[in-house]
Amino acid sequence: MTFAHRLLLGSALAFAAAASAQAPGPGQIGERSVEPSGQRLPNPEAANVRVAGAVYEPRAEKPGPDFAASLKVPQGFKVDVFAQDLGNARMLAVAPDGTVYLSRRTEGDIVMLKDTNRDGKADTRAIVAKRRGLHGITIHNNVMYIVGTHDVWTAQVRPDGTLSELTRIIEDLPDAGQHLNRTLAVGPDNMLYISIGSTCDACRESSDENAAIVRASLDGKSRTIFASGLRNTIGFGWHPATSEMWGWDQGIDWLGDEHQREEVNKIERGKMYGWPLIYGDGGFNPQDDEHAGVKVPEFDTLAKRPVVTYTAHSAGMQMVFNTGRMFPGAYAGDAFIAQRGSWNRSSPAGYEITRIRFENGAAAAVEPFVTGFVRKTGDGHAQYGRLAGTAMAPDGALLFSDDKNGVIYRVSYSGSPGAPVAARARVAVERDEPRLAGPAIAIARPETATAAKLTVRSADIAANALIPARHSAYYEDTSPQLGWSGAPLNTQSYVVIVDDPDAPKPKPLTHWIAYDIPATLVALPGGLPGDMRVKTGFVHGRNSRGGTGWFGPRPKVGEPAHRYHFQVFALSAPLGLAPGAEREAVIAAMAGKVIAKGELVGRYAQARPAAKL
To answer: Taking Cα atoms as reference points, which of 491, 577, 591, 595 lies closest to residue 541?
Structure first.
């Protein structure tokens, strides 16, 4: 795909804002087109090309009593109705005893369903929790975790399957915008993973936690950004044989029928997956030529490519790995994902259950598994379900939900079962930070050894004094002003690292990393943006929260004051690292280059919850 072609494909991002006509209703086709706006195209003739994007939702129809039997599945498989008349049936979770739990976002509750006579159909149901906006659910060690837009709750699962009172453990997830449907799961490292979608198709988010997977402790008291650049990875999980994390990312709208293709990503700590500029094998959105201060070509080098892609606008939802004994051996360790279906495509895509086929622990292909929810009619298409949730029952059957018709379907297999996937391999759990090679704070590390001293000062913080609350993560979270003097004449660049050695984990907790600060700069103003490249000419590294830029003090309420070491290093050469480098990589690159250093120590404590101050 050429540079100009990628620009043209992306120009439709402006459709929603530029179009004055109203979008057609369900079952109708409409096209909206705009000129490529605000772009300099390499090919002058391309400026006259108009790119069209479609709005088309197949007409909704109610499935009849024999509908499940008419669905298409591979030979030996069968689809039945497990439960119906459920309303807005969204995400699914199954307890070890076979009790099925269903979130209903519109109704704001969790429904418990039981198949007491083991005939493959639910015969009892009850509402076991109520809160506005409940969506993602998972069960771990007899505790249910539930996520809404801003909050995460926990509840004990009682012996009869009902839940205890909900306890809120997180209440400050970022605003949702376009994607309010958060999901969560507990990983093999006994940590809670929360998917937080972007607020838009392509923009600069107000929170680093948007368009990301966030990893939190099970009590919700600490969390970091695990992976970023993910537009909306509702479906994710860990391969049962390798413990590696995989996710399905929904593509950007308004790039035409065939773009952005849905992505299957191997999700790794600290990696960035390209949103909002880069998608697929190098396509990019031309609404901007940079993001967070990084131009498109460099941003492209930072973006991790998907392993497999699938039809654009399919809208993958909840994903589950097959760990059961019912399905054929060829399905062992594969994943299933519900495709809710397109609206931004001239011919419908999705509206199906797909199988992600894994080979040797890696995603190899995506193929339809349950189809027949979209059918041609005399005047277009009709759809008989918008699919949302997936889960594996203890007997190995696959359950999936339809949130438009309130149905949970059950897929079973009547042939010879295969062996389940091999037992989970013992893998090293990734840490929030690499293991330290020496003393906690950077200024005490052997890599930064030097006898020459810098004087570090701040207009906002006095030495050993309390840091004003506005700089903390409890309040405005703005970086303080910082300056220094006394650098040798041969200084070529500066590095700033702010460490908290009093945090329980990780030690130290790093709040700010800036490097390749030009030698001509001897002060940084307060309130700097968290851009990966700052316009004044330096680069931000990855702080312990997982983002870039300043992350303000946030010690636990009631703890003694923590010390915050504002450390400045004068270097004989720039580091030349890519944006977003981790602390250990920065310190390793500083070895042999530090010609002077100094620090300013401030303190911060949070006596009471911020809302009560």
So the answer is: 577
Please name every residue paired with 145 in a beta bridge, in sequence order, or none if there are none.
Answer: 138, 154
Q: Which residue in 316, 320, 315 sits closest to 237, CA to CA?
A: 320
Q: pLDDT tens for residues 504-513?
A: 878 899 999 9
Q: Among candidates 613, 586, 601, which has minimal Cα distance to 553?
A: 601
Residue with tokens 């509908």: 67
pLDDT at 436: 52
Please give the Cα distance from 534 to 544 (Å, whole number): 19
Buried residues in 539-569 as b, exposed as e (16+ CB within 10 A): bbbbbbbbbbbbbbbbbeeeeebbbbbbbbb
Per-residue pLDDT tens for 177-223?
888 899 999 999 999 999 999 998 888 888 999 999 999 999 999 99
Among 6-20, 375-389, 517-531, which is the least confidently predicted range? 6-20
Sequence-separated contacts (24+) of 63-72 with Cβ below 8 Å: 63/384, 63/385, 63/402, 63/405, 63/407, 67/384, 68/409, 70/372, 71/370, 71/371, 71/372, 71/373, 71/409, 72/370, 72/371, 72/372
| Residue 357, pLDDT score | 97
Structure tokens at 52: 């069209």
**Cis amide leading into 394 (omega within 30):** no
Nearest to 429 by CA among 137, 191, 72, 266: 191
Q: In this predicted structure, which of 288-302, 402-416, 462-476 has the lowest mean pLDDT? A: 288-302
Strand partners, 568: 496, 598
Number of separate helices (H) and strands (E) present in the chain: 5, 42
Q: Which amino acid is at 356?
A: I
CA angle 393, 398, 401 (to 5 degrees): 105
**Domains in the chain, please, with CATH?**
59-413 (2.120.10.30), 442-612 (3.90.280.10)
**How many other CB atoms are found less than 10 A from the CB of residue 362?**
14
pLDDT attached to residue 32 = 40
Report how far apart the first and last C-alpha atoms of the chain are (Å, whole number): 56
